[in-house]
Amino acid sequence: MKWQRWAVLIVVAVQLAVPAWMIFSRERILATGTAFRFRTAPVDPYDAFRGRYVALRFDQTQAAAPAGPELRRGQKTFAVLETDKDGFAHFKELRRERPASEPYLTVRVGYYSSGSIVNLELPFDRFYMEERTAPAAEQAYRQNSRRDSQNASVIVRIRGGRGVIENLLIGDVPIAEYVRNQKPGS
Fold this sequence. Notes:
alpha+beta, five-stranded antiparallel sheet, 3 helices, 15 strands, 26% helix
């Protein structure tokens, strides 16, 4: 009878520890990760389990394939990051092995678009928001991520190859603040 109590306690502890670890690891990245700003392009939706979000598409999702055998779709690779003169992140190169000292993002191979150019599947593509604010934020994002007015970007904190979206910006203004400052009907 005593071993059954211990078994139940262990199961409960594991069930609590897994989500706690997931939350802790993301919060740790947000607190200590290096911030990179990525250019975006448009999308909206709703996730029944997590709520409203702004679906993101990124301006750069390609990189040159590393030397060696052809990469397979879904294969894990490492995209080395650097920041351009305007302060936006882009992929400097793609590597098969984890970089020792350079900032990088762990990505998956999507497909080859032409020759040695690889389309990448980034590990983040949604910015979750408060239910009431999300529709206005989506509209603001769409208006500011068209080809004729690309003014939207995201700040992503990256640590150890993992990335967490910190904020969605319109210009240099966080999306929640931007929506709050908009006049009705504008």
